[in-house]
Amino acid sequence: MPGWIQTAPSAPGVFLVNLTGRNASGKDFGNRLNLSVSGVKFNDSNKNGIRDRNEPGLKGWTIQLKTQDGKMKARAITSQNGSYIVSGLGPGSYILSEVQQPKWNQSAPQSGTYSVNLTRQSINGKDFGNYQE
Question: How many angstroms separate the CA atoms of 75 and 94, rounded?
Fold first, then answer.
C-alpha cells in the first residue's frame, strides 16, 4: 500500500510455512508510515531570509535529520535546483538542520534549525537560506 514500509518480517518480507496437518501461528506482519521532510536550499542574495524569485537553489549541501537526543537519523544532499527530500521516516520528533559550509552565512530559518513532528503526513517547505559576504 502506498505510503507504508514493511517492518516485519525482515527481508525478504515473507514467511515460509509448512502446513502438514497443523496450524501456523506467530506469523505477524508489521508496517509503518513512510514519511518524509522536504524543502529547498537557496542562495539568499538579499539576506532577507525569504526565497525570492531570482534566488537560485544551491546544489551539494547536506541536510540532516536528528532525533531529539541528537542521534543522526538521515541525511540528504541538495539537487541541482537546491531541492532535498529526507525520506523513509517513521513518526517522531526530529531536528532538521543544514551542514554549514565555509564562507556562507545562514539566513533561514532564523533559529538555524527546524523542529519537525512527523505524525501521519509528510512535511514540505522546510527551506534553508544562505548568503556569502
Answer: 12
Task: Note down the domain range covering 50.
Answer: 36-131
11 in Cβ contact with 5 (< 8 Å): no
pLDDT digits (tens, 9 = 90+) for 48-106: 999 999 999 999 999 999 999 999 999 999 999 999 999 888 889 999 999 999 999 99
Looking at the 3D structure of the chain, how many domains does it have?
1
Name the nearest CA neighbour of 89 among 122, 125, 124: 122
What is the distance, to the nearest Å, from the Cα of residue 58 to the centroid of all Cα atoms in its chain? 18
Question: Residue 3: inside a domain, yes or no?
Answer: no
Closest C-alpha to 87, from 119, 57, 65, 69? 65
User: β-strands 35-43, 128-131: how paired?
Assistant: parallel
Give domain status of residue 115, yes or no: yes
Count of alpha carbons within 13 angstroms of residue 28, beta-carbon side: 4
